[in-house]
Structure formats: C-alpha cells, structure tokens
Design brief:
alpha+beta, Alpha-D-Glucose-1,6-Bisphosphate, Chain A, domain 4, 148 residues, seven-stranded antiparallel β-sheet
Length: 148
C-alpha cells in the first residue's frame, strides 16, 4: 500500500540574521501576513511549552504543540486536535542557519492524510499543492523580513 504521508522540505536564503528571521517567523501576529493559508492564529500558552491554535483555509483547525524551541536555531512541533476532512496528523521542524550575510531558513513538514481512496488518488496533487503553498509563503516572508 502506498504511503499517505506527504514529506516536503524547502529552504530560502534571507539577508538578515537568524535572530531576525526567527523573531519574524515565530511571531504569530505576523503569520497571516506571509502565510496565506492561515486564517487565524491564537497563542494559547507559552510555558511550559508553546501551544498555538491555527484556523486554516478549507475549514481546518489544529493546535500546534512545540516540542523544541532553540532560538535562533531550530523549532519542532506536532499538530494536535486536528479538525480536517483531509489531514490526520502533521508536524515538522524549522531551522535557521547562519550563512554568509544572512540565514538559510529551512522548513521540513510532514502531513499524514486520512486513509481514503480519494486521498490516495489525489496524493500527487495534494503534495504539489502543499509544496507550492510552502514555497509561496516562504518567499513572501523573505520579502517582508528583508524590508525591515
């Protein structure tokens, strides 16, 4: 049986320090400005670990539970309480690597689709859509961060 897990990864170079890239991308007040899939983001708690509730386009909601926050180097998280017709589970990590006069920001995301014939048939399309959305969001974040 074919896997129902979408693994996507993308990197982009931003001409700002890892701290500046981290601070912008990890601030959920900014998230809707650069990630057009996010309708609403609400930080539920910051301690002992950060938890954020996201409402996404397409009537998907989930709570992100951070497993690791090492400013300005890396984050990792797992989605909980997912309400979606498509997504069963999700998680990922972001890294911020100092490089020359800027930062190489990398997102690695894993999305597990619910088991269904439709999702199996549409898997290649969904993977392309998620990757395209990721690339578009990261490019927009780059523009916004480099303007500051």
């Amino acid at each position: 049986m074919k896997s129902n897990t979408i693994n996507i990864k993308h990197s982009i170079f931003i001409k700002r320090s890892p701290e500046q890239v981290w601070d912008y991308t990890q601030n959920y007040d900014n998230r809707k400005k650069w990630d057009k899939t996010v309708v609403k983001a609400e930080v539920l708690q910051t301690k002992p670990k950060r938890m954020v509730k996201l409402k996404m386009k397409g009537s998907t909601t989930m709570t992100l539970e951070y497993k690791l926050e090492q400013r300005p180097n890396k984050t990792s998280l797992q989605a909980k309480d997912i309400q979606s017709s498509l997504i069963q589970a999700a998680g990922g990590s972001w890294t911020y690597e100092k490089q020359d006069e800027g930062t190489l920001w990398t997102q690695t995301n894993n999305i597990v689709l619910k088991n269904s014939l439709w999702n199996s048939l549409m898997f290649p399309l969904y993977k392309n859509i998620y990757l395209s959305q990721l690339i578009t969001a990261m490019k927009l974040a780059k523009i916004m961060i480099e303007k500051t």
